[in-house]
Amino acid sequence: MTAHPDFDILISGRAYDPSPYVAFCAFHAFGKSCRPFEELGLGVLGGFTHMGKIMECGGVCATPKSSAAMASVYQDGSFDIRPLAEGSRCTTQSVAAHSLYEKSRPDILAGPGGILDLNTARYRALEDGISVRAKGALFRLSKEHDGEPYKIKFEGAKVVGHRSIFMGSFCDPILISQLPSFFTRVKEYVVQQHSHLDKVDKESKWELEFHVYGQNAHNSRLQQGEVFIVGEALASTQSLATSVISCARIACVHGSYKGQKATSGNLGMGIGGQMNIEMGPCAEFSIYHLVEMDEGEEDAVEIGHDDSAKRFIRWEMRWIGNGPSLDHNKPRVLKSSESDSSVTNQETSKDTPKANILSGIHLLGTLAQVIRSKNSGPYEITLDIMFSDPTTYEQIKNFNILTAEKIASLYNISVEDIVWCGFFDPALAFKATIPRRARFSDIAGKSSSSLAVSSGGPWENDVHGSQKYLPLMNMEVDFDVLQK
Predict the structure, then answer these.
(1) Of residues 163, 162, 94, 165, the one with CA closest to residue 130
(2) How far is residue 195's CA from residue 108's CA, in Å, rounded to a whole number?
(3) Mean pLDDT, residues 152-180
(4) What positions does the domain HTH cro/C1-type occupy (predicted)?
């Protein structure tokens, strides 16, 4: 920016999402001169980074969620944020809650060169009813806070094979009731049909699994309807993957089972006019490491500079087109938010409805305003529960309803495996972060492996981790028992 202050657009590789927002604010805070970020101070850099963390997700900080948001940033690091969609508004809770989203913990957020500390962040509603002012966040530089060097995260993947799939459905209740044993026999048949590979090509490897949708394994009293399945084969070559999945599909169509009456074929198929679908190469996370930089190595250098060949981070400028330059380099100066009289201290009066003391049995999902799950990096899933009023939140918190032990029980993991678990008062929220386990689970819901795995790759059926909240949503809470 300082080398070419008349820029119109910046294009960068995928890095730290708040970076463009922080850089643009620092560019103007320094008067378009190139100076070290640490000269901004912990509070100003913390405010810029906090704003960038929110803005990089657009209008997720609003309720209802907006497609976009706008921030007005002050020189002291405080900022006002509001949604751009009609009918949406930012509240103190919705803005504070953004630090829960896709993060392992909501109060300390790690990034290149340090951590964003939100423990001192404060949120105030503005009189327009749709905007919130935030201030108080601190960015603690790693070399000053804990003596650690600047670190950059490396991510990468490798090809682990090729995939083919088939899709279809079962509707016979006799078959649906015995799918585990049926799939075992299907796999045995596929093994038998490919037994010659051990003699012909010892390098050939393959695996086969089934994704099952619609079978209610947790309540056998409910009448089973149609069950949808996706067979997935992973093999060392595309042709072998297709051979395996074709064999498995045939076994699903014509395989016999105890009590069988429908003998004309088991599997409804033909979606899209394809029996088998070749999916191509299958990639899997293989690099996810923090790399320590040498002193000064984190600074970017323009390609062509005398020292650029030796530097780790390099960039270049290109002219594209001949349109007029945008007058974006003369921002309105907003020194501090303190002198602004549009702030109201009645910040929670409009946002927070009153609630009665709870009694009886409730599902946690009926008590929560938001209950969700999402990836936090490729190896973790984070669970968020937000409540609409302080009364409900305090009851949930004070009765120790949500604990590490409860999360471990619901998700069949050990307490020691939980990455983070706790309450976050600014958002009236509870968060727990757990490791991702084997992507494939059998139809009874039991994990086939206790190994930690990354999102994506073989057997994945929830790449965003957004469907893992149901155990929490269906958790029963008996307030009468708790109050005794």
Answers:
(1) 94
(2) 53
(3) 95
(4) 397-418
